Amino acid sequence: MNAMAPVTPVILSGGAGTRLWPMSREQYPKQLLPLSSANSMIQETALRFANRSGFAAPMILTGDALRFHAAEQMRLAGIDDATIVLEPTARNTAPAVAAAAFLLAETDPDAVMLVMPSDHVITDQAAFDAVLNTVVPAARAGYLVTFGITPTAPATGYGYIRQGQELGDFPGVHKVANFTEKPNTERAQAFLATGDYVWNSGMFLFTAGAFLAELQRLAPAIHDAVSQTVRQRKVDLDFVRLDRDTFVGAPSISIDYAVMERTDRAVTIGCDIGWTDVGCWSELWEIGDKDNNGNVVQGDVLTQDVKNSYLRSEGPLLGAVGVEDLVVVATEDAVLVIDKDRSQDVKLLVEQMRSQSRSQLATHPQVHRPWGFYQSIRNGERYQVKLLSVKPGAKLSLQKHYHRAEHWIVVQGTAIVTNGETTQIVRENESTYIPACTVHRLENPGRIPLHLIEVQSGSYLGEDDIVRLEDTYGRN
User: Fold this and answer.
1) What are the tens digits of pLDDT across the range 301-339?
2) How far is CA 16 from the centre of its chain?
């Protein structure tokens, strides 16, 4: 990268990733999970450019429900300067990118923004850096760059871009001739035969000012609504909260439809950067490390005479004998078995779960909160047992429950417990009892995680039986 103003990575993190169920859930989607490496996908995306010359701190756009998850993911990755922007509702990618552009343009209309989804895998960082060195000057010259991926097969799951005339001043960068939605196999084969087509990666590079100018010309309703949204934003703890009333007025449309397919400033470059849009389990099999039988195996898994399969366990022992071309994924509360070639059809199961209001679609047994997590161990008639883990220095809200009492047993660390009018220290192997309707709070004053067993008893044990009177995280 050159010595000019740094490029800002803009990371879009709003998807649900339901085709990667049962690991990806609505309230803890795939970008928060370590699917392709030891880091989560959003961490991998941010870490590509963290603390590197030529790049500014990342800007992350996500939903309100994922705000604390995104912040925690950045903290764990050692990135403490990310700007996290909260979309009040999902309005697709054009309004999200517009919000980022308006925020950057306030200080520098010529700020270059590198827009990336949070759930893509790029394995050849050196090749990506070389591509960026080629296209950043084109973006500074006012072009809107979309990254094309050199196709390796007649894939029908991606959109295609036909490359037009090469720009004389920027070798390797071509005008976009046209975009094509996901083709059938025959048409995709014809595209590859011409040598003119690349896959549409969904990654973009442009200056904030150039994008906003085209947005105002081609999609003024989005431009005007988001402009007002950004002006009326508020700062909430460490988050930038966009104004809800004006944001919902922005049409819900992708950046491709709103701008890129209509502008005459769109250019593209073919990339061979080890890119994968991880949208389903078969794609994780494609990029995974395979054994001698073509299997990708993760977790506690035993196999016998298994070939070309993706086998993953997030808890229980998984055994497989005499099968091939399968995806089997086991979590603590669900198991998926599907033909590898039908990985996209997980969406059919998702539709069934949604129609039946299945909890396994939305949440994991381990539910993350800004103070730590809780995990259900056992549910029964009028009782529930949970494990609570509270981060060092964190505390739950000051709260009460109308329909349940709680028994807390500390198994690691030290707790400060507010119980009605009293405050007490509860140490390992000690316990306390919170009657129903009693105002209470749990706090970890120590330097190690606080683990305790919570036994709830009462006529109603739902999570909505909670009255927050005071909350460090602004949830009351």
Assistant:
1) 999 999 999 999 999 999 999 999 999 999 999 999 999
2) 8
Provide the token pair at 423. 């405050």
**Peptide bond preceding 22: is omega within 30 degrees of 0, i.e. cis?**
yes
CA dist list (Å): 9 to 12, 100, 102, 204: 10, 10, 15, 10
Class of domain 366-470: mainly beta
Class of the CATH domain delimited by 8-277: alpha beta
Distance, in Å, from the CA atom of 176 to the CA atom of 138, rounded to the nearest integer, reads 14
**Is the predicted pLDDT of residue 185 greater than 70, yes or no?**
yes
Closest to 440 in 3D by CA, of 423, 459, 418, 457: 418
The domain spans of the chain are 8-277, 284-354, 366-470
Q: Do residues 347 and 377 make contact, with C-beta atoms less than 8 angstroms apart?
A: no
Q: What is the pTM of this model?
A: 0.90
Q: Which residues contact 23 (CB under 8 A, 6 or more apart)?
A: 30, 33, 35, 312, 314, 329, 331
Q: How far apart are CA 391 and CA 413, in angstroms?
A: 10
SS3 content of the chain, % helix, strand, coil (to 5): 25, 35, 40
What amino acid occupies position 162?
R
Place of tokens 């934003």: 233
Are 48 and 9 spatial neighbours (Cβ–Cβ below 8 Å)? yes
- Provide the terminal-to-terminal Cα distance of the chain, rounded to the nearest Å: 45
